[in-house]
């Protein structure tokens, strides 16, 4: 059972697989100035340009087709 | 009493029945068309008033309905949205875009069926790409998206055409700084029955010609009182006597009937239709009328064909 103990120990020292996912940068659009900001899960949600704290998700690439009716 | 006249009484409408119904033993259809007259009263680039005399309500109504819902035009049908960060939801934006009148000659295009893909024969492509930005001096650029921002990109075979939105200043959306709309808009040919965006008219309507007669001569104070009474200013005074000056302006408010001493007789000429055609700007009103008449003619011909087939089918 030594192996499991070691892996538990290592989790606190270096980023685990879950930790790496949280470090991934995601870009959001500032609700005030429209600037694109990149955040990780640990960052404070403040816009670099204006300090505003409300953000919008970006649209997925590829677009969508609508009927103009 | 004139058969051609419907009488307007203070609370009722009398003698309203049609006069040329086939079962009445009256005229044949050919007589109607021989006696029909069409007169243009007013013609502007976007609207038109015409008088059609000698037809009955069914024919007039057929013409009106065809103008509204069966004369084809081009309109935006498919919206490929690549980016919409504005506050307007995608579906609402697409709907707003669809209602923009597109100046294009519908006869040069074919109807697009489900199987067809977009091509130069059945579609028009517009591109829309607007991004709102805050400039260095704090001013905001591209705050409003107007119909003039639609950029026509000719498809193969459309190089010689002139296509653009009819009006350049239709507000499509409002943007905040950083917001962006990017879309490709595909126009297709269609008719108003499918969706109102294809209707070439804002409205096409008719009313019956009013007929106003004074059963007695009104003078002095009485004449002035009658003139004052009418809000539509139908009556005027000439040589001290009241006359009917602007018959067409009568709105049938019947205010003049309330005082019986005036002796006004109101009526409607039952076979005299005043058509009003208001175009959206895509087709000239004259052209809309012509197209509607041709469509009506085609419908009649189709019926003749159906009747002929029925005639020659042996009865079982």
UniProtKB/TrEMBL annotation, chain A:
Q: Which SUPFAM superfamilies match?
A: RNA polymerase subunits (SSF63393)
Give the superkingdom in one word.
Eukaryota
Q: Name one GO molecular function term.
A: DNA-directed RNA polymerase activity
Which key words tag this protein in UniProt?
Answer: Metal-binding, Nucleus, Zinc
Point out the signal peptide segment. Answer: none
Q: Which InterPro entries does the record match to this protein?
A: RNAP_P/RPABC4, RPABC4, RPABC4/Spt4
Record's subcellular location: Nucleus
What is an annotated GO biological process for this record, any one?
DNA-templated transcription
Q: Which SMART domains match?
A: RPOLCX
Any Pfam family matching the protein = Zn_ribbon_RPAB4
Q: Does the keyword Ligase apply?
A: no
Entry GO terms, CC: RNA polymerase I complex; RNA polymerase II, core complex; RNA polymerase III complex
Location (main, coarse): nucleus
The text of the family note is: Belongs to the archaeal Rpo12/eukaryotic RPC10 RNA polymerase subunit family.
Give the matching PANTHER family.
DNA-DIRECTED RNA POLYMERASES I, II, AND III, GEO11084P1
Q: What is this protein called?
A: Uncharacterized protein
Q: Which organism is it from?
A: Stentor coeruleus
| Lineage start | Eukaryota, Sar, Alveolata, Ciliophora, Postciliodesmatophora
UniProtKB/TrEMBL annotation, chain B:
> What are the coiled-coil residue ranges?
none
Gene3D superfamilies to which the protein is assigned, alphabetical: DNA-directed RNA polymerase, insert domain, RNA polymerase, RBP11-like subunit
Q: Where in the cell is it found?
A: Nucleus
Report the GO molecular function annotations.
DNA binding; DNA-directed RNA polymerase activity; protein dimerization activity
Annotated keywords: DNA-directed RNA polymerase, Nucleus, Transcription
Q: Which GO terms describe its biological process?
A: DNA-templated transcription
* Main location (coarse class): nucleus
* Compositional bias ranges of the Polar residues kind: 7-21
Fetch the InterPro entries from UniProt.
Answer: DNA-dir_RNA_pol_30-40kDasu_CS, DNA-dir_RNA_pol_insert, DNA-dir_RNA_pol_RpoA/D/Rpb3, RBP11-like, RNAP_Rpo3/Rpb3/RPAC1, RNAPI/III_AC40, RNApol_insert_sf, Rpo3/RPB3_RNA_Pol_subunit
All residue ranges annotated as the DNA-directed RNA polymerase RpoA/D/Rpb3-type domain in the record:
47-306
Provide the residue span(s) of the region labelled Disordered. Answer: 1-25
Listed under GO cellular component are: RNA polymerase I complex; RNA polymerase III complex
A Pfam cross-reference name: RNA_pol_A_bac
Family, according to the entry, reads as follows: Belongs to the archaeal Rpo3/eukaryotic RPB3 RNA polymerase subunit family.
Protein name stated in the entry? DNA-directed RNA polymerases I and III subunit RPAC1
Q: Which organism is it from?
A: Stentor coeruleus
Taxonomic lineage per UniProt?
Eukaryota, Sar, Alveolata, Ciliophora, Postciliodesmatophora
């Amino acid at each position: 059972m030594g192996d499991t103990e070691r892996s538990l120990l290592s989790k606190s020292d270096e980023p685990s697989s879950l930790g790496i996912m949280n470090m991934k940068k995601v870009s959001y659009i500032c609700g005030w100035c429209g600037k694109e900001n990149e955040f990780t899960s640990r960052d404070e949600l403040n816009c670099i340009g204006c300090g505003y704290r409300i953000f919008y998700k970006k649209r997925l690439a590829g677009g969508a087709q609508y009927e103009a009716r | 009493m004139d058969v051609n006249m419907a009488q307007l009484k203070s609370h009722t409408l009398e003698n309203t029945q049609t006069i040329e119904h086939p079962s009445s033993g009256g005229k044949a259809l050919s007589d109607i068309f021989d006696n029909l007259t069409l007169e243009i009263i007013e013609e502007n680039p976007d609207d038109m008033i015409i008088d059609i005399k000698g037809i009955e309500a069914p024919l007039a109504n057929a013409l009106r309905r065809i103008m509204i819902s069966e004369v084809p035009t081009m309109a935006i049908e498919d919206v490929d949205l690549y980016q919409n960060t504005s506050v307007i939801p995608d579906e609402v934006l697409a709907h707003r875009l669809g209602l923009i009148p597109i100046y294009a000659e519908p006869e040069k295009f074919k109807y697009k069926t489900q199987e067809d893909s977009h091509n130069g024969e059945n579609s028009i492509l517009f591109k829309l790409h607007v991004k709102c930005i805050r400039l260095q001096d704090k001013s905001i650029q591209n705050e409003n998206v107007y119909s003039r921002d639609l950029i026509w990109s000719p498809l193969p075979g459309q190089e010689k055409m002139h296509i653009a939105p009819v009006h350049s200043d239709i507000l499509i959306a409002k943007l905040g700084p950083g917001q962006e709309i990017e879309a490709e808009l595909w126009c297709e040919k269609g008719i108003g029955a499918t969706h109102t965006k294809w209707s070439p008219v804002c409205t096409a309507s008719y009313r019956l010609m009013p007929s106003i007669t004074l059963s007695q001569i009104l003078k002095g104070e009485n004449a002035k009182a009658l003139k004052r009474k009418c809000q539509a200013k139908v009556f005027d005074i000439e040589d001290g006597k009241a006359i009917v000056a602007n018959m067409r302006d009568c709105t049938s408010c019947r205010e003049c009937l309330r005082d019986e001493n005036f002796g006004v007789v109101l009526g409607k000429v039952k076979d005299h239709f005043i058509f009003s055609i208001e175009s959206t700007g895509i087709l000239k009103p004259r052209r809309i009328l012509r197209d509607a008449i041709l469509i009506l003619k085609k419908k009649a011909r189709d019926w003749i064909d159906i009747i002929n087939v029925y005639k020659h089918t042996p009865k079982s």
